[in-house]
Structure to design on (292 residues):
């Protein structure tokens, strides 16, 4: 006898019983990977599928702060409060120094005005010698000569005879100290050069001094000369010194048709007698008691 509920043969135990046949996927469908038929499934069951990462949020992307949380501070804000105060004070001092320096240099190169007349000493104290500014390089007729200042001395030798040294090029000594030096001293760059310019500006062509400035320029050059002669190894005290300048015009370039006479032109100063007042600090000059 056949049951009405199993007329199609799909009843239990009937010829049509069993699982439905597998469905063949369409060509545009992707089939998720599954276990291979005939192989046992892992003991723990199939591994759960990991969700696909959201674009822009890979493992290397930094985690964004949660809502309500502040981002970590950077720069000075990342320091502790005492260090923040120190850093702020340091930046303020640097800013103030920069403003003062720019103002002083501006007043130095600016034309004479009320401020420079009232505070000229402070401006010169700040500017010279490290921050001196001049326009000689951009003058209509820049310097076209090399000027060397030389000195020779008459000294009392150990045997009691007076002897005279050869001319000593003090400018060449300064050039040797400057050449190849990344941080040359202002003494080697400016002391002798400015002293000679001071002398030329306070004397006429016949080497006659024009007032107190001229006598001060002479004493200044004598002290420079005695300081240089102290390292020459003379075997007796210096009695007199004489200075001269050797000016040589710079040779014209090869492509120029200009003819330049490069022979030195000398300006010879008179002999100066040395006294104890002409000895800089540290210069003994042999028997100094004989000079008093």
């Amino acid at each position: 006898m056949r049951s009405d509920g199993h007329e199609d043969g799909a009843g239990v135990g009937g010829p049509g019983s069993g699982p439905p046949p597998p469905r063949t996927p369409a060509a545009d469908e992707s089939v998720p990977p599954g276990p291979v038929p005939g192989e046992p499934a892992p003991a723990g069951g199939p591994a759960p599928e990991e969700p696909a990462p959201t674009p822009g949020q890979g493992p290397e992307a930094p985690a964004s702060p949660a809502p309500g949380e502040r981002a970590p501070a950077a720069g000075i804000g990342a320091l502790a409060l005492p260090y923040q105060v120190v850093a702020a004070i340091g930046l303020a001092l640097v800013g103030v120094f920069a403003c003062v320096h720019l103002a002083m240099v501006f007043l130095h190169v600016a034309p004479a005005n009320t401020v420079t007349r009232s505070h000229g000493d402070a401006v010169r104290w700040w500017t010279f010698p490290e921050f001196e500014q001049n326009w000689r390089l951009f003058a209509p007729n820049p310097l076209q000569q090399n000027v060397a200042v030389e000195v020779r001395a008459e000294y009392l030798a150990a045997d009691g005879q007076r002897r005279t040294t050869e001319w000593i090029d003090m400018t060449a000594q300064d050039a040797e100290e400057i050449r190849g030096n990344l941080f040359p001293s202002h003494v080697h760059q400016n002391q002798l050069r400015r002293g000679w310019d001071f002398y030329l500006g306070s004397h006429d062509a016949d080497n006659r001094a024009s007032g107190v400035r001229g006598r001060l320029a002479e004493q200044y050059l004598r002290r420079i000369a005695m300081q240089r002669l102290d390292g020459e190894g003379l075997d007796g005290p210096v009695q007199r010194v004489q200075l001269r300048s050797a000016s040589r015009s710079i040779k014209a370039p090869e492509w120029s048709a200009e003819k330049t006479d490069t022979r030195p032109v000398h300006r010879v100063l008179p002999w100066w007698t040395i006294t104890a007042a002409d000895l800089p600090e540290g210069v003994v000059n042999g028997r100094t008691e004989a000079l008093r």
Notes: The chain has five helices and six strands.
